[in-house]
Amino acid sequence: MTFLPIVERELRVAARLTRTYRSRALMAAILGIVAIIMLLFGALGPAPAQMGGTMFATLSWMVLGFCLLEGGRTTADCLSEERREGTLGLLFLTDLKGYDVVLGKLAATSLNSIYGLLAMLPILALPLLLGGVTMQEFWLRALALANILFASLAAGMWVSARSRVERAAVSGTFWLLLAWVVVPPLSQSTTLYGLSPGFAFAKAGYGGMDYWKSFLCTQLIGWFLLAWASYTVSRRLADNAAPAGRPFWLRGRGVRQRARASRNDRQRSQMLDINPAFWLVMRNVSPVNWIWFVIIPIATVLLTLSFSAVFGIGLLIPAGLLVNFLLKMRIGVQACHGMAEIRRDNGLEMLLSTPLTTHAIIRGQILALRRMFTAPIIAVVVSEIFGFVCLVSVFGQDPFDRLLGLGLGAIGLLAYFGVFALDILAVTWAGLWFGLASKNETKAAFKTIFYVLVAPNFVLPFCLFYGAPLFIAWPIVWAAVAKQKVETEMRRLAGPRFGLGANTAGWVSRQGPLPSLVGPGN
């Protein structure tokens, strides 16, 4: 028997795909454009001698973000998708082992990620020509980035082996990587520092034993996760078996759960009367889905008030930006999920076969998002306004200065909330469009977050005072284009999965109706 046969087959298939070559060229092009812009603006800056070190740090952090996100984008749903479609058990009817399946799927899904990293390394080496970066620092940083990419892919594979739902697999990978990278440094323990993959990245400029200990720990943990995934995937095949009995200490929750279910049924009946698409989206959504976005801003305000004025303003601004970004990201992901789910379950085809119009279906999606996120948005806005007023009140002793600062700050705050509202509008419509048009929900979510929220930040350091019009125009353009796409393309994209494809449907419409297979008298 061939050693690792699935790996060999998947590599042969991937080598013939166009996107294998297109993706690595795209990664190199994106990083190359950023490097060229930094070269042009850095040469005109006040400190051109420091341009090499600044460029190397900026490009390294961009590649670091790419490596951390690849696990959730590529490997997080590879095994769970096979389990949902019922094809995972077929692989084990042969002589394949668990490690054959895991390593084969890892090779298939991670090839483009590895190619993307290799394509970006020559761009990352450009600062060597400018000075300020040593050859040792470059190679240690490149090795640390490859190590982080391996950790991200291994974490995604481990979560995918234990999951069935796509959203749970992607979110589980995100939280696992966040805990793996962030928790060891926050523990304030020198022993646990090396467990974080980011520790080797931070120590790349110094090297030494700390760097290699962190590198080795990440490798050991990554291979352990892959071995655990291999064991798990060969043991979790009976997903449709009857669930085991609940422990006796949990059986008392049945009464509360039945009461909650009855209350939810009444609410869903009301939703069905309002809009069937509204009910279809909200039927599986928990009513406490937004609670974390209420707790986070309140905790931010409390932390801000516990510090002095200087530390408070330094905390409130980045904390507010982070909370707003997380909330906008969550809205975009939910918009993708709502549209992708009803299309995957053939709900969109059934809705379009009724007298409901496309505008009514879209209105149901908007109503569901409004129901889920109105309270979090209000909580975020109120808490940020409260924190802003508290901070302004401690500056200056003259009442006129305080009033002037409050007025100028209010103008800036209104502009800030205006951009926040435009971003929410843009991620809503972009999420609906990508959820409708993308192959799966994960790709739709990543496209929404990257194109609408992340992409404008790449050019912000180079726009100076021209960055404000960009941040206003970008979401307006995305909202308008995505809204037009959803309204015009919904019927065309609702049924190609099981029916005629778009190209075939267009050919049929040009050729006229198909001839009847039965005679007129039958």
Could you tell me how far the N terminus lies from the C terminus, measured between alpha carbons in angstroms?
Answer: 57 Å
SSE pattern, N- to C-terminal: HHHHHHHHHHHHHHHHHHHHH
Mean pLDDT: 75
Total count of domains: 2
Rg from C-alpha positions? Answer: 26 Å
- Share of helical residues: over 70%
Query: How many β-strand stretches?
Result: 0
Largest sheet: none
> What fraction of the residues are assigned to beta strands by DSSP?
under 5%
- Look at the helices and sheets and give the structural class: mainly alpha
Shape: globular
pLDDT < 50 stretches: 238-253, 497-522
Helical element count?
21
Quick summary:
This protein is mainly alpha-helical and 522 residues long. Helices cover 77% and strands 0% of the residues.
